[in-house]
Each structure stands twice: as C-alpha cells, then as structure tokens.
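Support case: user asked for a sample of complex input and structure output to validate their parser. Sending the pair below.
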Amino acid sequence: MPVNPELVGRVFPPTSPYLVGREKVREFARAVFAEDRQHFDPEAARARGFADVVAPPTFAIVVQEQTLAQLLGEQDSGIVLEHVLHAEQRFRYSRPIVAGDELTATLTVSGIRALGGNTMVTSDAEVRDAAGEHVVTTTSVLVVGGGDS
Amino acid sequence: MIPAVGDVVAERTVHLTRESLVRYAGASGDFNAIHYRDDIAQAVGLPGVLAHGMLTMGVAVSTLDPWLGSSGVVTEYGVRFTRPVVVDPESGADVTVVAKAAEVDAEARTARIDLTVTHNGTTVLGKAQVRVRFE
C-alpha cells in the first residue's frame, strides 16, 4: 500500500503530557556526550536562570517519538516502520526544555511528495508546556520506501 | 563570545562504541534493532550496525556546549542524514565535528554555526546548521 496522499494537512490529537524527569535529562545528556554542568547540576542550571537541569537540544525527539507512533498507528497511512528512513530533522526552539516541564505535542502532516520510487513525508510536531506556551516545533522528513521488494 | 565569520568555535572527536548505541537506545527510546543487531542490519541490506542518526545529530550539537558557556542558547538546529555511521563491534567508530561561524549578527547577538561532521573522512550530516543566541 502506498503512502496515503490524503494525510497532508491532517492534524492529530495532542499527545498525553510527557513529564521531563531530571534523571532522564542526565541520562540523555550522557548518551549524546553532552558534558556541560547545566545538564546535570540543578544549581548550575539555576545560576543560568532555569528552573532545573537543561535538556540537550535534541531531547525534543523523545517527545516527537510519541507523535511518530500516532502517525504509524493511523490505519490508512500506508506507512510501515520497516520501510521508513529518517532523512531530515529540525528543531525550532522558543526556549530550552528543562526538567519538570510537562510537554504535549500536536502533530501535523505538512507535506507528501514522491521521490523516485519512494515517498517523502514531512511532519511538524508543535510542543507546548503545561501553561500552553510554545517550547519547540520539531520537523521531520521521513523517506518511505515503496515496499516492492 | 560573539565570533567572527569563519571562526572555528568548537571541535572534537567522539569515539562511539556498541555500548554508546545501546546507551542512546535506552535514553531516547529508539530501539530499532539495526542499531544493535548485526544479523538484522545485514538482513535489511546495511553494511553493518549503524549509529542512530539522532545520536550523531546530538553528539554534533553538544560540541558547542563549552563555547556557548553560560550565556548562549540554541534556538534552531537542523540536519540532513546523508551517510550512515557504521559502528564496528571491536573498533567502534570515530565521529569528528568542526563548528564554524557562517553568519554573525553582533547587534542581535545571534549567529549561524555550520557543523561539519565526518566519519572516516566522509561527511555524514548534510546542511547541519545551528542558530544560537547570546544573552
């Protein structure tokens, strides 16, 4: 089944709130070899004016992941995980993510176009905090193979 | 801390091992088996177990941490995943990051930093650009 072109413009319901934990931020920072103290030490983060430890910039992918699950779970999407490659990724921040944030993501499929025998699917996840303020918008481009083989 | 256009503001080489991939899988929740199982990587036609593209992307931007110091923040960051990083079970893989100032607005205290990210002499991320702002 090819990717359903009618996905373009589809807006998904907000994901359930993701509570950013201090140990999760530390674990993620270690995993990406981010060594600055603001990722580990709440005092260092507070000295910079943040409420708690600061997540590295790509941490937002953890929240975006929930929206990918929504997209793949859509019955009519025509997208099968085994045929998906990550082609591009972008983050646009209003502010850094910090421990204690409760984040909700709303996914919109913004573009679908054919490329050779594959399909490029662009989607945006708008991530907001518990107060409804914008934190980051993540944009991902997936290449979905034709699945002929 | 505002650089001049062309300045190399940060650089480093990070040695990735299979343990790094397992650690990133756990931290990120991306448990795609091509990042830790040779048999599955081979079955889908890959040259070997690959680093997560998002791990390479994360390693690349964190290179800026010491330079950003206590007053700089990342406001935008985007990459294209152009080449895979194959991580050998014994020798691992080195990823080298060089961060260079491409645009500078001294008045707004913002800059665009371009990252050159290579593995075995080959560029693995395309159009890797970071926008930063200093307080």
